[in-house]
Amino acid sequence: MVKKIPKPSLARLPKYYQVVTSYLNRKNEKYISSSYLSDCLNIDDSQIRRDLMYIEIGGIPRVGYDAKELRDVLADYLGYFNLNEAILVGVGNLGTALAEYKGFERYGLSIVGLFDSDPEKIGNLVGNLKVDNIENLEQVIKKFNIKIGIITTPARYAQQIAEKMIKANIKAIWNFAPVTLDIDEDIFIQDENLAENFSFISHYLKETEPEKE
Amino acid sequence: MVKKIPKPSLARLPKYYQVVTSYLNRKNEKYISSSYLSDCLNIDDSQIRRDLMYIEIGGIPRVGYDAKELRDVLADYLGYFNLNEAILVGVGNLGTALAEYKGFERYGLSIVGLFDSDPEKIGNLVGNLKVDNIENLEQVIKKFNIKIGIITTPARYAQQIAEKMIKANIKAIWNFAPVTLDIDEDIFIQDENLAENFSFISHYLKETEPEKE
């Protein structure tokens, strides 16, 4: 039995996927070595080999991994071959940025619906989609059996939007509102608190420049 | 000597900060328990106590932590008391969302300059800042001794922008462009690859619904 992959290892797999994909695009080589991945990503060689054991791909000692096989096994493991349809609520700047972003399809994500409560936004075309009235949210989720909800509303609306999504049977929420959602149901919540992530930088600067106060 | 904090522990500290801050705003209580934090965040009690040992704050058994002390020690540790000035390059939707976001100051981040190469954007007012010409980037960084550069350009420009920032002596880069920067210098890079983070969701959906292909 394969052990459950730890979250930090899972977080590195998309990086390996990115490197091996661009390697295949640029080079005419059958194999890719863990030391090549290590150089590109500044991650320890041994760490990379341990991570790849979770996806059950075997390398050849002193040669490396079959690059195409590695790419495909990673894509399959990460679910990129499945097309995951999502709806997004909150068509502000961040919501618009996500709706217009071209790179998601490669990762299996297709945003198929946009919702807002602002009459000025409803009906506008954003990234080829017409912004729909938030009142139609539950109906659309159910009708098209959407599994993923993306929340890019201001913090104060996030909880009620999440509850509506869950009532309509969404399975995973990607939450960009800077608030911790209070959810009892067995739903997968991926929080993106951008301000929180800034803490890595502020902590680093504080540690390296202790004289600055 | 205090051990260096592991990255997953560091990543949780802003969440504790958020909970203890809202606890102090809403309740008139001196102490906050690790089990309260645990309930709010769905993180193990024992994990929370281990994380807080890194910031050298002691709790009282069966009572908890002094809430104000906890908030202040976390804020200090995370560098929130320092005001960190940053400049941002790439005033598209994502750049605009970050520039207009009101929540950063609480985390010690102040965006003080916006840059773009698009003549249609230069001179526009975004979140109280006038968009400056990218040609002035290095000069402004040096003049105001800016330590943090935020990159929200398309992927193909990110490397050259990063190099310009580093030449002007920036210390940390917050990179939102979906590309791995190739940097030799001792610079702190915080990558935010939103599409990569989606992998947590796609992997989860694949694991829980193996029949879907």
Instruction: Tell me the number of structural domains of chain A.
Output: 2
**pLDDT < 50 runs, ≥5 residues of chain A:** none
Major beta sheet, strand line-up of chain A? 5-6-4-3-7-8-9
Tell me the overall shape of chain A. Answer: globular
Level-2 CATH architecture of the largest domain in chain A = 3-Layer(aba) Sandwich
Give the end-to-end Cα distance of chain A, rounded to a whole number of Å: 52 Å
Tell me the greatest interface: A-B, 61 and 61 residues
CATH first level of the largest domain in chain A: which class? Alpha Beta
Question: What's the overall average pLDDT of chain A, rounded?
Answer: 89
CATH superfamily of the largest domain in chain A: NAD(P)-binding Rossmann-like Domain
Query: So how many helices of chain A?
Result: 8
Taking the sheet with the most strands of chain A, its summary is:
7 strands, mixed
How would you name the oligomeric state of the polypeptide chains in this document? homodimer
Domain CoA-binding (chains A, B): 80-180
Keywords (chains A, B): Cytoplasm, DNA-binding, NAD, Repressor, Transcription, Transcription regulation
Pfam family, one (chains A, B): Put_DNA-bind_N
Binding site for NAD(+) (chains A, B): 90-95
